[in-house]
Amino acid sequence: MSTASLQRPALRTLRDLPGPRPWPLVGNVFQVSLHRMHQNLADWADEHGPFFRVQLGGFKILVVTDAELIGQLLRDRPDTFRRPSRMQAIMREMGIPDGVFMAEGETWSRQRRMVMASFAPQQVRAYFPSLLRVAHRLKQRWQRAAREQQQGAPGLDLQAELMRFTVDAIAGLAFGTEVDTLGSDDDVIQRHLDKIFPAIWRRAHAVFPYWQHVRLPADRALDDSMRVVNAAIRRFIDEGRVRLQDPSRRASPPNLLEAMIVAADEPDSGMTDEDVAGNVFTMLLAGEDTTATSLSWMLDLLWRHPTALARARAEVDRELGELGDWEAEDLGRLTWLEACIHESMRLKPVGPFNVVEALKDTVVGDVAIRARTPVLLLMRHDTLRDDIFPQAASFMPERWFTEHTELAPANAKRVSMPFGSGPRICPGRFLALLEIKLAAAMILKHFDLVGIDTPDGLPPQEHMALTMVPVGLRLRLRERVSAREGFDAA
C-alpha cells in the first residue's frame, strides 16, 4: 500500500454522521415543525456541526452548512446534482408542466438558453417602461389607501399588496398581458396562485400521500385553482399566437412568452406548448411570491431601523425626480438602497435552505453518498456567523460597501447566495432586483411609513411554505409632502 493511500482521509457515510436521534419508521419527521423547518435545521446545525444527517419519512438526508462547499455543490449542477425528483413528481401530479425551474437534462439546457437571454440585464432594462406603469398603479392604489386610513381604515396587508404589484409586473413583462390587480379588487390569478406554493410545500413533506386516496376540501380547492391558472396560461399562449401573426413581431418578440412560442415553432426545436406553459407557470409562481416577499422583509427591516430608512429616503430624494421621468439607469445610482436589498436578503432570504439530489454516487466533503441521496444546503447558516459577518444579526447595509471590509468578507456575495449559484442560478435575478428597487424608491418618494405592525408588536415570525414569508405585516402610511411641494408651499 502506498504512502498516499495511507495518508488519504477515510470517507464517512451518512451512517457515521451525527444528527438528531430518529424515531422508528418515521425518523425525525415529528421532531420538526413544517412551517419552522428552517429554524429546526439551524438549531440542529448548532448542535451537530457542518455535516449531519436527518431522516424525514423514508428519506435519509445529508445536511451541509459550509457556504464554500454549498457553492461548489450548486456549481456541480446539472452534472452531479439535480433538483429533488420528489418535488418534480409532485408538481407534475398537480398539473404543473416542467419549466426551466424543474426541467433536467437536455430539456433544461434548451429552455435555459432561451430564458436566460430573455432575462439578460440589457433586456430587463428594456422592460422598464412597463414596470414603471405598474409602479404608478401601486402609487395610485396606496394614495387611496392612505386617504382611507385617515378616515379610520385598517392598515394594508403588506405581503398581499406587494404580490399584486409583482403579479402585474410579471404578467406584463413575461407574457405581454395586462393583469391589473392593482387597479381593481379583481385578484383572481393572485388568489389562486397563493394556494399553489403552500400545497407544493405540504405535499413534498407529507409522510403519506393521502390526496391520492382521499380528496379533502383543501385538495378540491387546489384542483379548482389549478384549473383557473392553467386556463389563464392557455389564454396567454393563445393571445400571444394571435399577436405573433404580425411578421415584425415574430422577428423580434417583445416578451418572454412570445419568444418561447417563436422558439417552439422553429423546426426541430424540440419545444412544445407544454414547455411554454411550464415556463409561464414558473414565472408566475416565482415572479409573484419571491420578489414580493423580499420587498416585504426589506421594508420591515427599514421601518425597524430609522437611520437606515432616513438615509434611503434622502438618497431617493437626491437622485430621482418625478416618478414618470425615471429611467432604469437612474435607479443604478441608488447605491444605499441596493445595499439595503443585499443586507435584507442576507438576513431574511426567501430560501433559507435549498435541496439537491445526487445523480450518481459521489463525495460531499468527506462524506460518500449514494445516487438519489438528498443533500439539504443551509443557505442562511454562514451568513449569520459573527466570525464571517461581524455583528451578523444586525441590519447594517454599510457592510456591502468596499470601505467597510471589516464588516463583511471580501467574497460576501459568495457567502450570501439568495438567488443560488452556478449554472442554475435564478435567471430572473436582475428583474427581481429592479422590481424591488423601483417599488421601494416609489414608496420612499411618495409616502411616509407610519407603521409596519405585527399582531404581537414583535418582529414578524418566519413562516416557511416553500418560501420564507413574514407573518402578519400590516402597513400604515400617509401621502408625503415632497421637498419640492414643501418649498412651493413656503
List the topology elements:
Blueprint: H1 3-7, H2 37-48, E1 51-56, E2 59-64, H3 67-75, E3 81-82, H4 85-94, H5 105-118, H6 121-126, H7 128-150, E4 156-157, H8 158-175, H9 188-204, H10 217-243, H11 247-251, H12 256-265, H13 273-303, H14 306-319, H15 328-331, H16 335-347, E5 353-358, E6 362-364, E7 367-369, E8 374-378, H17 412-415, H18 429-446, E9 447-453, E10 462-465, E11 467-470, E12 474-479, H19 483-489
Parallel strand pairs: 2-8
Antiparallel strand pairs: 1-2, 3-5, 4-12, 5-8, 6-7, 9-12, 10-11
Helix pairs in contact: 7-8, 7-18, 8-13, 9-10, 9-13, 10-13, 12-13, 13-16, 13-18, 14-16
Shape assignment: globular
Q: How are strands sequenced across the largest beta sheet? A: 1-2-8-5-3
Runs in which pLDDT lies below 50 for 5 or more consecutive residues are 1-7, 483-490
What radius of gyration results from the CA coordinates?
Answer: 23 Å
**Strand residues, percent:** 5-15%
Work out the number of β strands. 12
> Level of helix content?
40-55%
Measure the end-to-end span: 89 Å
Largest sheet: 5 strands, mixed
Name the structural class.
alpha+beta
Put simply, the count of helices is 19
Mean of pLDDT: 87
